[in-house]
Amino acid sequence: MSSPRSAAALVTLAALLVAALLLFEVCARQLTGAWFTFGVHPEVLRQLELSLADQKRLAGLDPAGAARYRRRFTAIESLLGRLRILEYNRDEVVGRYQAALLILFGALAAAAAAAYLAAKVRQQGRLDRLRGALARLSAGEVDVEVGERRRDLIGRVGAMVEETSRAMARDRRRLASLENLAAWQEAARRQAHEMRTPLTAARLDLGRLHGLLGEDGGAGDGGDGGDGGRRRESLQLAESVLEELDRLGRFTQAFTSFARLPKPRLCRDDLGAFVAEFAATFGSAWPNLVLVAAAAAPAAPGPGPPHPVEAPPAAHRGPPRLAFDRDLLRQVLVNLCDNSSQALAAASGGEAAANGGAAVRGTVTFTITLTPDDGTGRGGAGGQDRTSPSVVALEVADDGPGIPASVLPRLFEPYVTTRRVGEGMGLGLAISRKILLDHGGDLELARTSAAGSVFRLLLPSDREASP
Amino acid sequence: MTARALLALAPALAVAAALARAAPLLAERPVFELGADGVLVMAAVPDVLSNAEVKPRLTSGLTTSFVFEIAATDAGGRKLRGGGLVEIRYELWDEVFLVTATGADGRQRRDSLPSLDRLVAWWRELKLPVLAPGNRLAAGSCRLVLALSVLPFSRAEQSETQSWLSRSVADERAAAARAGETPSPAAAAAAPLSGVLDLLVSTSIKRRSVVDFEWRSVLRVRPGGADAERRP
Fold first, then answer.
1. Dihedral angle computed from the Cα positions of residues B172, B173, B177 and B182, in that order, rounded to the nearest 10 degrees
2. Is A73 on the interface with B (CB under 8 A)?
3. Same structural domain, B168 and B180
């Protein structure tokens, strides 16, 4: 409020106040004076005087009622006296009344002006905060908080700034993840390439050696027992090495798969129907898992987990049709179910033994929620009235043993696994996240505990199908 | 005539105006004498009743009050103050003037006079102690300043009218309440303010004087008696 413009506004306000006071004073003077004149009008006084004379005359004409006329006379005389006193004090009474009204009006006007100025100062402060937030945003800061809670224009602009900031933060995180994954993919591609050539040559040579040993063995079956034994031993060794080379080949293939993840071919489809179909088709793929497609849940009112309601797939109320790649999304679900199954099996090894060998079965529940994107990429009820696009969240919840805390910070990085060496490459979650990021969404761990883990697949609802 | 000349003349003009206002009474002056008990008594009060501003008030039905205030400085330099009160009310029914004169000694004199002429005569014959009996003037030259304020009504009538005004407003609100009229939210919110306004209005009834007079005299006090008053 220190700028010349503010000073001019103050002067204008003060001038308006003074003008209002003057106008009020003029009006009050006219009105008050007029009303007072009605009360003590000379004609009223004259009529009262005549009434007094009449009472006296009546008393003379009607002596029997003299006392009554005297009482009436006294009353009129008293009233006349009061009115004369009022009339005598006319200027004081009117002046006092006007002054009181003027003070009252002035106080009200001053209070209104003070309230207006206070509101102006508050508004200026809010605008300054908004300007600061915009400056930080334009300087490249993300997660900018304006701190506006009101729903007026400034509040809405503040909310938009915060949304933009969160969207920028989300995009940066995605970009960083994508860059990281791209680097890992490039490394995997090189490793696969470097490994594949000698591996192929070794396999060919070993296959040839295996063939030669087999031929020699068939030709010389009647030979001495010493040569036959060495041949058989060599044959077994060659088979064993071939087996290891096959395993190495599968690893190389995994590298190749990770390095050459295809771009999603988006087709608009019903995600609910897709999930229900997946649960039905893959229901028996993992012996220790039961797959359940829960009914779609509304946006969660708070930060708590959604509460899936089990329902048959036919009754599934699907979200709007989304653009997604069925094959890739199926791969994601398979990866997650694989992880759940293996984690459950590892955890239930001892438990199964305690139960006399009976297998422990877990449940994987798929729940879909449609929520507006609050800029965090997670959706949320907090952004219900905002104009950002909605995201569809598909939650995959298991009741397994949960994920060790030590793994959580690097959970989605390639080659991070809780399995024993040789049992897995640790690429499943990295590949899955890459697939979701390529969809314009994300994959995140919603929560994990000893009661189970929940992964959340976020898919934007406004993506168009691939041409 | 320039503005500067006008400004220079302004004080002189103001004095001349004040003198002109009091001019009719300057010729006639009250007489002061010492009573038997040595009390200063005002006698032969100038006829202010015939004054154009005072005369119409006498028959208004209200009590016209004549408030005398005297400041005396005796030869010893002692300053003494006193006064007196004369109240005149015209009784409209009986058509008589009811007068009450109260001196500084606390004694009251009441009379009922049938006409204005008799009232004027009574006024001229009035002898009113204006200093309390204990305030004896020292022998020597004593300067006296007598001020007279003519008030259009008495203090009792002032109080009665104020309370009537307040009562009238209160009765009006009470009648509205009895009639079951629900005050508007604005009126309910402004109720305390209207009370303040009523108080301001009712207390605005003042006993402003109709006209004021002032006389200055010098009284030569001799041990055991008073000299005739002298002009300053």
1. 120
2. yes
3. yes
